[in-house]
Structures are given as C-alpha cells and as structure tokens.
C-alpha cells in the first residue's frame, strides 16, 4: 500500500517563505550617480531601445522562483522584456521614466517630491505673434473671405438678394487680392483652389438670383473653362437653367446635354433630373414655335381691299354708281371668301394653341388677343374673348364665364348680342329666370336677326308658361335661320304642351331627318305615338332608341311597360330586367319584377327585389311586409315570424303587421298570440279615434268653405274639383303590394330621358345629356361664315 507513495525530495534547506526579506540592490537609488549604464541611458536614447526578446530572460531572473516541483524559473513581463533593474550579463537594466516621476540626476535622498515642477515658479510669458508677417496677413485675409461668403449665403436665405450680391462681390475682390499676395511670396501651387471655387460659385449664384443672367453666365464660364476645377463641368446645368429662363431653349438643351455627358452613371438621380429638364425644354421649344407660327399666320398679307374702299367719299353720282357696281361683283365675293377663310384659320389656330402655350388657357387666350389686336384682324379679338368664356364653361367655371361675358355689355351691337345670348343661357341653366329674361331681351334688341338670341328669349317665355308666345319666338328664329335645330326641337315641345300632337310629331320627324341618331328626338317621337295611343309605333321608335343608347334604363323600362300593357309578359320581363341591371334603384322596376315573380309562384326570387326596395326606402313599411309575405307564401313560417317581429319593433302601430303576427302565432300555437291580440285591439281603437277626428275636422272645414264662398266665382270650385281628381287618381290603400299612394323615387337619380326632355333646349346646346358644349353650340352665329 505504501509502495505508491512518493515523498517530495528536499531541494535546498530554504523554507517555504525564504527570500522575501532579501534586499535587492537594484532598488538602491543612492548609487545611481555612480551607475555608468544608468547615466548613459539617461543622457542618450539607450534606455528606449526595444529589447531583443529572444536574448532577454525574465524580469525576475535575479531571483529564481521555486515551483511546486522544486525548480526555479526566471520571471519576465507579459511583453517579454526584463523587469526594471534586472541584471543581465553583468549589466543592470536602467530605470525608465525617472524624469517624468520627478527625478533628476542631481536629486539627492530626502529632496522634495515635485513632479509638476511647481517649485520652479510660473512659466515664462508666451511670445507675441507677429501680425506683420506675410503668412499671417494671408491667413487673416483668407478668413475674411470665408466670412464674406457665409454672410452672402445667409443674406440670400433671408431674402435680401441685394445684400447677398454685395457680399459676394466683396468676397471676390478680396479673394483676387489674396491670390496676388500668395503669388508674390509662394509658388502658384499653394493657391487655395477650393476657396476660389466657392467664391466664384457663390458670386454666380447671387447674379442669377438677382436676374443678372449675363454676369452669372460669365462667372460660370470662368469656372467651367478652368481645368484646375475637376467638377466644374457640372455647373453647365446651372448655365442651362439660366438659358431656360431666358427662353433660349436651343442653348439650354445644348448645355443640359453637355452636363449630362460629364455626370457619371452612378449619379442616377441627377442624370434623371437633367433628362427631365431636357424634356421640359423641348416642350417649351414647341410652345415658342407655336407662338412664332401664330404670329406668322397673323402677318400673312391677304392682298385684298377693305371696306373703306366701297364707301363713297362724296356725293358724286358717277362714283356712287361705280361703287354700287363693284360692291358685289365676283372679285368682291372672292375677297370676302379669302377674308373669311383667313379669319377662320386664325380663330381655329388660337383655339388650338391658347391652352398649350402658357401655364393656363386664360393666359394663352390673353396672349392671342394681344397679338390679334396688334394686327389688322382687330375685330377677331372680341370673338376670342367669347371663346375664352366658352372654355370657362367647359371647365364648369360659371363665375369666370359670366365675368368675361359681362365685359361686352358696352361693346358694339354684334358682340353685345353674342355675349348677352350666352349670359341668358347661363342664367337659364342656373334657374335665374329674371336675369335670363333681361339678357335675352338685351340680345334680341341688339340683334333682332340672331336666332340664338330669339331661341333663348323663347325659352324664358316657355319657362313662365306662355307657350303660345314662346312658339312665336321659335318660329321667328327658324325664319332667320332654318337650320337652327334648337328652335325646331323647342317648338316641337311647345306644340306637345299645347296638345297639338300632329304639329309636334311633324316637327320631330323633320328634326329626325336632320339629326338621325339623336336620342332625345327618338324618345320624343316614341312618346308622342304613345300619347296618340299607337303602341306599335311607340315600340318601334323605342327600339331605334335603344340601338343608339343600349344602356338607357328609362328607355328599357318604357319598353317593358308598353309590352306589359300589350299583355306580353315575357318581353316585358326581359326589358324590365335589363333596366334593373343597368339601374337597380328604380322603385317602379323593382316593384314590377317582385310582383312578376309572385304571380309566377317564385316567391323566393321576389324576396331579393323587395329587400332592395326596403334598402332604398327604409321608412316605407310595405316593402318589409312584402318580404315577410314572400317568406310566408314559400312556407318558411319561422322566417316570416321573425321578419314580422322585426317589422313590429320598427313600426309598433302597423295594423297589418299585428294581424299577421296574430294569425301566425295562432297557426303555430305560440303563447305570444294573446299579447299580439291585445296590441292589435289597442292599435285599431287608436286608429278609429284618429279617423273620427280627421273626419270631423274635414266636415267642419267643408262647412266653412260653403258658408264663405256661397254664390262666389267658380274658380275655387274648379280648383277643388281638380284637386279631388288628383286624389281620386292616387292608388288606394287596398291595392296589392302598397299601403299608400306615395311612390318615392330616389332623389339622387336624374332620368336622362324623362322629365328633362320636356325642358326646352337653349340655343347653346343641342344635346342635353352631354357634359361638354361644342364650340358651335354656344353663340354659333358669332363667327363670320
């Protein structure tokens, strides 16, 4: 057992703590003055030489440290250099950094520790900087130039462009002075190119901000032509911007392209912006070309004699006879045609280029008007102003249109009539009949032969209900211009109002020969045949109508109505269904489709139509009652009961709902039957009391009317008879699927071929269902033909 136990051998007689009280002579500082190696290290850089790691033993080589195995190894620092004071090859390693620790070579034992040298007293004063040296003057001048550049930029950002320019000029003067001083005392290579670049660039920017484009271009040229500025070529973009402002588009495009060639492909965003500017310059080039072409068109000589030639200067009979002879000869007719053609070309060109040559069409028209006024086509300027008002109308800017037209109230009669005609039309559209009548009278008084003015005057009279007088104005307009389709259409409506159906049909058939595909004319013809009780002709014309406007829901529903009156339910269903598909909010169509499915015993399909009707008219209880009735007829009693309960919650005093609830609860054996029966009795009693009160109040008012109007005129009785006839014409409460006679149609729906067709057409529009007006539709007789 003890054979595996080994005792540690005794290396030396030292105990475990031996050597700790030994004194190392390396730390003895009293003999440092006599240490030759230390003194040499202090005086020279010998002590700062890096040691050779491979030849230097550990720092503690002078005192081996015993290990657990009894061996002793020399210690070294972590960097592999010997410890301070270690002895190697008989030479002790000198101490380092003794001077920084407060030691000097004359330090004696017991001296005061003063590492900061406070005992030596205050430091000597700093030497004064000599500002008279050329280098110092250059530095101060350079600092001043930078300050001026900064002040110029700040002034520009604050909006003081004049001050910014002055600062930039001052910076430029001082920078040139700085360059001369540098050239005198140093080589040209020492010139601060960055400072020169910034000064010139800022000066060019300030010139451009102050709209001194020539000076800005010259300054940019100085930068661009100097090869010492590596990126100066990119400033050609700024030069191109200046040329663009000067409207020198060809040079702008040239410099943009030169700048694009010098921009590296890595700067994609900058290259895209430059290409965008090139595109803008090309567009502006087109604008300038359009302006130049218009000016050339104005300047084309017609080589014709003007009207002054045909005015007799005196009362010479021979001269007057000669003037009368040549006033309407072939040469004069040719001159008129040439002048008319030139005016037509000028007006067409102005209409085309005015919206494109400037930022807005109004500014473009103003430019065209000024150019025309400076030519011998002065009379066309007023027509251009009229076209400007028409353009405002197309953009639905009625206020600007009215303001533009009002400027012509004091012009000559022809222009005044044209402006008043359009003003009357505008006020008629806005339903301001008083203003429309005033301007219609002004237009007629200014030019009695203006068919548009006569048509608008007839419209105002038509709106006031005087159909006979309106027909006279329309007839006069047709006598002045037989091609005035507006007057022909409106006289047809007037005859229809006067119940002169044959004359109205004749007018619309004539109009159909002129306007073959006019939807309104086709509808009016079909409507007249329906009134004349000729359904076959009405259906035929409605078929032509839907071939022109196949998606018109009103025309489709009218076809369905005619086929239904003829007893053809399948055709009626087809057209009613098509009408519903294009416009699913027509209550009459929805009601017919629901009733059709109930008659054909498809109550489940009728539910969706009555539910849609309930969404459109949520306050009408009849649609919800029809939904519940369809559930009940289809055998879904539980769903019908739930629907009736929901109706009762919304309309607690509805008698029909309570009756069906009582019947359903009785048939299904529910306990709620007694509750609903009690509510039904109470509601019926309240309804009976209300009816008695209404009846008594009606009888009292009838007696008072008889007493107050006994033996009076027959006007009141006739009015009462008409009112009673209207009341009798309303459907009764016992009619199927309706609980009242009110048929509320969605107010947001405007029937394109319904009530609007009864409104007379103004002289300024031929198609009432169009959103825009053609040029010939507003004041079509204003332009010379």
UniProtKB/TrEMBL annotation:
BP GO annotations: inner ear receptor cell stereocilium organization; intraciliary transport; kidney development; non-motile cilium assembly; positive regulation of cilium assembly
TPR repeat spans: 233-266, 451-484, 485-518, 519-552, 553-586, 587-620
Name this protein carries in UniProt: Intraflagellar transport 88
Compositional bias segments (type: Gly residues): 709-718
Encoding gene, per UniProt annotation: IFT88
PANTHER family per UniProt: INTRAFLAGELLAR TRANSPORT PROTEIN 88 HOMOLOG (PTHR44117:SF1)
Keywords attached to this entry: TPR repeat
Record region (Disordered): 42-66, 114-135, 691-785
Organism whose genome encodes this protein: Pelodiscus sinensis
Bias type Basic and acidic residues, positions: 691-708, 758-769
GO molecular function, one term: kinesin binding
PROSITE patterns: TPR (PS50005)
GO CC terms, sorted: centriolar satellite; centriole; ciliary basal body; ciliary base; cytosol; intercellular bridge; intraciliary transport particle B; mitotic spindle
Pfam family, one: TPR_6
Entry keyword 4Fe-4S: no
Extent of Acidic residues compositional bias: 770-785
